[in-house]
Design a protein that fits this description.
Blueprint (H helix, E strand, L loop, with lengths): L9 E7 L4 H10 L6 E5 L6 H7 L3 E4 L8 H11 L7 E6 L2 E3 L3 H11 L3 E10 L6 H9 L5 E3 L6 E4 H6 L11 H11 L3 E12 L6 H22 L8 H25 L9 H9 L7 H31 L10
Parallel strand pairs: 1-2, 1-4, 2-3, 6-9
Antiparallel strand pairs: 4-8, 5-9, 6-8, 7-9
Helix pairs in contact: 8-9, 8-11, 9-11, 10-11
Length: 328
């Protein structure tokens, strides 16, 4: 039996690809809470589309002739909503479930703060103990409550604010949410993070290769973000791009060239990496184990991020369109 939505004028846009049972859990967590639920599918090979329809979601299937991106999917979902019945929209990834009480908390906050375009809360990993990669994801989702520069893929947003800035930039293969938030802030809106559980995420990231590809994608997002909005005063992701190139490409090249062209003693420069791990591991607020894991993978990740940065600029200079970098 369908439950009457607690907030009929709040809709939801869910995006996914081959999410399976995770998508079903996501849709079930939304039923009876919001009014219209639109699921946008990016070429799933499983039964996601049929099962989403069975649960009462309206389904939008993206044309595979155009490269898939999360930004394109979210825009398609927003376009499918009935504007006359949608004041707020919950954006959520299909591998997440909505926490009970989140809509109550977030909608009340937006009602009291008309200048806020969208609000996010805590996203937690369902099983951080399954792998170091899941634990790193769980740490990545955390952030201080209050005004913030950007949110992630899950947020409750004002439909009018999204429309005012033209929605997401459809061609971005990653980093579309911070880019949207940048344009919202330029338009005079603010972004807010609440100290409230919003969603639970199921990364299911258990292999090094998955983590590496995800880090490559992050580097690509840094480079493209800096290319689009790197000018002052925003300097969007310029520092992140610079760090990736210095630690992941520049320093290794300097070590190799110095050792083979100048003197083998140049190999001592490689000690900068363990020194950086030691410095980062002193981060407060983490358990000893998590601090060491975070520090080691942060340094190692710079090599993957540099690969993503260089991939973006190579494609840009060659005039080739970027393709989605999937890690699952």
């Amino acid at each position: 039996m369908n439950r009457a939505p607690a907030y009929p004028r709040i809709s939801a846009v869910v995006i996914g690809r081959n999410e399976g049972a995770r998508l079903m859990a996501c849709l079930n967590s939304l039923r009876g809470t919001v009014g219209d639920i639109v699921y946008v599918d990016s070429g799933s090979a499983d039964d996601s589309v049929a099962r989403a329809r069975d649960l009462g979601a309206r389904v939008v299937e993206l044309d595979p002739a155009t490269p898939f991106t999360a930004a394109r999917a979210r825009n398609a979902g927003l376009a499918a909503l009935d504007r006359t019945r949608c004041d707020l929209v919950q954006l959520i990834d299909g591998d997440c479930t909505l926490a009970p009480g989140w809509i109550d908390t977030a909608a009340a906050f937006l009602g009291d703060h008309p200048q806020v375009a969208l609000v996010c809360g805590r996203r937690e990993e369902e099983n951080p103990g399954a792998s170091v990669y899941n634990r790193l994801c769980d740490l990545e989702w955390q952030g201080p409550a209050g005004a913030t520069r950007a949110c992630g893929g899950d947020a409750l947003a004002r439909r009018a604010a999204l429309d005012a800035v033209g929605g997401f930039r459809a061609g971005l293969i990653a980093g579309e949410e911070p880019e949207l938030c940048l344009r919202l802030r330029r338009a005079g809106w603010t972004i807010w993070r609440l100290d409230a559980l919003m969603t639970r995420h199921d990364a299911r990231m258990t292999q090094f290769g998955q983590w590496w590809r995800r880090s490559v994608r992050a580097g690509h997002a840094f480079a493209e973000g800096a290319h689009l909005h790197g000018a002052p005063p925003e300097r969007h992701w310029v520092a992140e791009t610079r760090r990736a190139l210095i630690w992941g490409a520049g320093l290794p090249a300097l070590i190799v060239l110095g050792a083979f062209v100048v003197h083998p003693a140049a190999l001592v420069l490689a000690l900068a990496y363990p020194a950086q791990v030691l410095r980062l591991a002193a981060r407060k607020g983490l358990t000893r184990r998590l601090a060491w894991e975070w520090a080691a993978f942060t340094v190692l990740g710079k090599f993957a991020e540099a690969q993503g940065v260089l991939r973006f600029h190579a494609r840009r200079l060659l005039g080739r369109r970027a393709r989605l970098i999937e890690y699952r």
